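Entry:
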Amino acid sequence: MTFSSIEFLIFFFIIIIIMASFNIKFVRKNVSEEKIKKIKHYILLVASYIFYGWWDYRFCLLMFIMTFIAFYCAKKVEEDKNKKIYSFISISVPLLFLGVFKYFNFFIESFCTLFNITNVTSLNIILPVGISFYTFQSISYTIDVIRKDIKSQSFLNVALYISFFPQLVAGPIVKASDFLPQLEQEQKISLKNICIGIQIFVFGLFKKIVIADNLSVFVDDVFNNPNIFSWYTIILAVISYSIQIYFDFSGYSDMAVGTAKCLGYDFKKNFDVPYLSRNVSEFWKRWHISLSSWLQQYLYIPLGGNRRGKVRTYINLILTMVLGGLWHGANINFVIWGLLHGVALCVHKIYKKFRNNKKESKIGNALSIFATYVYVCFCWIFFRATSLSDVGTILTRIFMFEKGITQIFSWSIIAIIILIIGEIYAHVKSKKNNSTVEGFYVIMDLTKAKSLIILFTFIGIILGLAYTNSNPFIYFQF
């Protein structure tokens, strides 16, 4: 069940109807507000487990175990009973689960390659969808309790925080300090929130099934057979992939934000026009914001951050990004991708000191944006290619200007135009408001006939241009 499926729309419609039934005066008159709040939390918890179990019900047990560990260890830590032991368990056990399911074969194969061991059979381990995301949320909850940033919660609240279905399988990674306070008050279903949520959801749906999924046809074709395409076709495919992954993942995040908003919950934005970044440091403040902030708060800072000298700062940056790359998957390509971004972050820090934080000119900013985008696209090659040999083929054909099949994919041109128009609009809007360039949702007043006509026309365009073959969200594999 994915956000873009008919099954989800039916499932979500039923949830909305059930939750909205608690707005009926008769119900509110005969049941206390506290009890209504708890019942609604149980309903959302059951709905979340149904949503997750739709892929494979067996992994509901895994998520339940992680939830119980987080809940129990946080309670013990707060009671100051064997604090170090329970702190260790709360972090190490979820990471152990993640390591077994996601990295066991990778580490075994790497070990055997290192020591030239042959005839080793890999285990057929099924990767639970979304395990990387709810593992991070489980760990962040217990760490926040250990740090005394939040108080330990009831099992119901912890379970709903970890399993809440809008963000369960592909994020955004919601912090406990952002979500748990919202559980303290009853989140009522309101027409205003539904109108806002639907528009954000539809916007994300357009990104996913119209732009990203149509681009996937061309991108997959080129990256699966890079040795037969011309150098400029490969460059177009790399640009197309940069747009595909952006629209695919930001589209999912938009749908998650919209779905949660319909239910009365607020998520922070996960993307903020990242391809207008002037450097890699800014890029990571705009791209997958929930992951980059998680890595900063729970990995980079505990490693020492920038508090232990320049050399240690650079080591911490590179190590954080390498582990961030490894988080995406058990593949050496992801490690190199993380390493490249880590090195770029270090170079930017050195450059800032060299420039002494002087402001760039408009031309300088434009060149910085272009150079950052080119570097990010270069890194995407490692992220998307299935092997290092494919990376070598792609880079060789690009830099040697190799001839081959030439294919100018129309959806690539359309996607580039849409991206540029969107970024120009965001830039112009920021100038009018005298603020930095930020992404935003165009929210209309759906009580007006004009707005409804625009919305339904937009939905009609989505249905007419949608790529109809099954194409899972890219980040489901992580």
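The two ends are 17 Å apart (CA to CA).
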